[in-house]
Amino acid sequence: MALIVQKFGGSSVADAESIKRVAKRIVDTRRAGNDVVVAVSAMGDTTDELLDLAAECTPIPAPRELDMLLTAGERISMALLAMTIKGMGLEALSFTGSQAGMITTSEHGSAKIVDVTPGRVREALDQGAVAIVAGFQGFSRTSRDITTLGRGGSDTTAVALAAALGADMCEIYTDVDGVFTTDPRVVSKARKIDAITAEEMLELAASGAKVLHLRAVEYARRHGVALHVRSSFSNEPGTIVYDPAKGHPKGEQVEEPVITGIAAEKDEAKVTVGGVPDVPGKAAQIFEIVAKTNANIDMIVQNVSAADTNRTDISFTVPVGDGRRVIEALEAERESLEFENLQYDDQIAKVAVVGAGMRTSTGVSAQLFRTLFEAGINIEMISTSEIRISVVTRADLMDQAVRVLHTAFGLDSDTDATVYAGTGR
Fold first, then answer.
1. What's the CA gap between 76 and 42, in Å, rounded?
2. Alpha helices for 10-128 (secondary structure H)
3. Per-residue pLDDT tens digits for 363-384
4. What's the whole-model pTM score?
5. In the chain, which residues have pLDDT < 70?
6. Coil, helix or strand for 169?
7. Could you say which of 7, 21, 226, 402 would form a disulfide bridge with 39 (CB–CB 3.0 to 4.6 Å)?
């Protein structure tokens, strides 16, 4: 008997018929002889609708109360799913994040998991029941409040439960058949990837790929959790995210592709601190101030200082939701930082090509820059790692950049990818 953790996203449980379809898959897994734990998201666009409702009531919702509101979405879907499974003849018990032992830090809206004590989940399994856990939420022992993990947090809930319970597999169900070479909503000829290394998946998730949440991939890699990304709308085998140190999941000894996939992200903004004195310690001052806002910095570029003024410009990107907060913090310290001007640009996009084969291949950068040049797409910033090249361009050119790069690196499939559901909201 295997222990399998399954996670179903909002599009997979968007309505009653979808919940019935998901329940049947869970029941089939249980009747095949497996213990099953399920982490479930809110139905469809429920979270966005609750956020919209809160914004209608007040321009700045209280973070504690917003968490209380948003966790209602997952509680609805977990209860409906448990009822449906019971109606199919199997015992099922639903648990909130706190009941399932998801212990977090006290930051509302972006809490981190610090411990998982799934005693009640284990008891449910020992009784032969399917355990249904509300994703995206937990409980802070420090503040004694309900918390949320941030968008995509249900993936992290599932992985954390799999790690704590010693699960044999964590299956992430979504509205596509697995991990694709890029978003099939943008490139219809995107190809499904049968197996991808955890390192490559981490880079894709960090660069904007929505199929798996970044924190979930990180957690899985750190705790050795095996991930299987599948569609809840079909029986296709999906994509295995694996540790290359343990070998390819199919035992294949094949050379890694140069480029595995392309990811893109619009939800970032560029901040430029202009006319900064080019002296030791000034950059440290700037980024210490930014760090106090809890903004997550991605790319950083510093220009060569002007010979006549000995001043330079420092540009960096942050999530668009953090941008205004960063600008306000820097503006408040203008006198001590001695910069001349601040610029804020939220009409940018990040496009990244990722592939483990880049370590041993030459010419990838040249091909990327040549392809974007021929498409008339200007590059504003560049960042690299061993297996990734990221560029910043205009937001309205992002989809075009993804399409031309996908074709240039030979990633196009002969057939169109299937997207079963989801609004992309």
1. 7
2. 16-31, 46-57, 63-87, 119-126
3. 999 999 999 999 999 999 999 9
4. 0.86
5. 247, 250-256, 421-425
6. strand
7. 7
